Amino acid sequence: MTRPVFRFAPSPNGQLHLGHAYSALLNHQMAREADGRFLLRMEDIDVTRCTPELERGVLHDLAWLGLNWEQPVRRQSEHFDDYRAALEKLVEAELVYPAFMSRGEVRASIACYEADGASWPRDPDGAPVYPGDDRYLTPEEREARIAEGAAFAWRLDMRAAIAHVGKPLFWDETGQGPKGETGSVPADPEAWGDVVIARKEIPASYHLSVVVDDALQGVSHVVRGRDLFYATAVHRLLQELLGLPVPQYHHHDLILDDDGRKLSKSRGDTSLDALRASGATPEDIRRMIGFPVS
Ligand code: GLU
């Protein structure tokens, strides 16, 4: 029988905080209880914000917490060819298009629409969905813009992608969504609009690299924070378009600060590094996030 495969997949673009510690410890514990494997993956496609120094900090924090993981650690920045191959499949199927609108242009287009009192749709994270005007450019117009060096991102033509799959999608959730969703959860990728699949210089986005890697690494159980619950709908759609296996999902509670806000990497006070410097032990960390101290 093949053993279940779990993974913790931090982005080394800042220091780990208590929320990451919870996610890593939970993954590790669930893997142990299921006699499964525990992998570590560095989600470092954003090569400008992820640095080797921050990665060293992540590895140090996880080892300090008492975790161990299989070697080698998969580093996404070393596997751009895998994401490029997946992107090319979507390009060939005409399910992605080069999107040229800058953030400012998107804002202006939405402000113009909303000036009349209408409200532009927002995605589950609260960001306005991409207007998608350039979905309708002709191949010649696209080529001309690319040839003149215009910046662009590859975006999924969401409506075309959903039509291509042609059936409702679900995922198996053993944790819970923000509204208590659990069990067989219907995926609603449309709510996200035309998501970014890859950048001009980097042949991947979070959505693309996460599904490709989970499949390549044989991940059977995705255990991660509830903030990624609704993004799973996009992942299910990509799995279907790319013919990838579907893991089981478990979205866990988020560790909140004293004001009930999600912890962030930019606020250093709950970083494991700062807590360690102020004298906290790994056992203290476990206690702080409600983990049994063994
Ligand atoms: N790299 C993502 C993060 O740090 C997690 C991705 C995932 O677990 O699917 O938020």
Automatic annotation (TrEMBL):
In this protein, which residues make up the domain named Glutamyl/glutaminyl-tRNA synthetase class Ib catalytic? Answer: 7-288
Q: Which domain of life is it from?
A: Bacteria
- Tell me the organism's taxonomic lineage: Bacteria, Pseudomonadati, Pseudomonadota, Alphaproteobacteria, Hyphomicrobiales
Family that this chain belongs to: Belongs to the class-I aminoacyl-tRNA synthetase family.
- Protein name per Swiss-Prot or TrEMBL: tRNA glutamyl-Q(34) synthetase GluQRS
Entry-linked PROSITE patterns: AA_TRNA_LIGASE_I (PS00178)
Which gene name belongs to this protein?
gluQRS
**E.C. number, please?**
6.1.1.-
Native species of this protein?
Nitratireductor aquimarinus
Keyword Endoplasmic reticulum carried by entry: no
Q: What Gene3D superfamilies does the record tag this protein with? A: HUPs
Any signal peptide, and if so, which residues? none
Keywords recorded for this protein, A-Z: Aminoacyl-tRNA synthetase, ATP-binding, Ligase, Metal-binding, Nucleotide-binding, Protein biosynthesis, Zinc
Q: Which InterPro entries match?
A: aa-tRNA-synth_I_CS (IPR001412), Glu/Gln-tRNA-synth (IPR000924), Glu/Gln-tRNA-synth_Ib_cat-dom (IPR020058), GluQ/Sye (IPR049940), Rossmann-like_a/b/a_fold (IPR014729)
Gene Ontology MF annotations: ligase activity
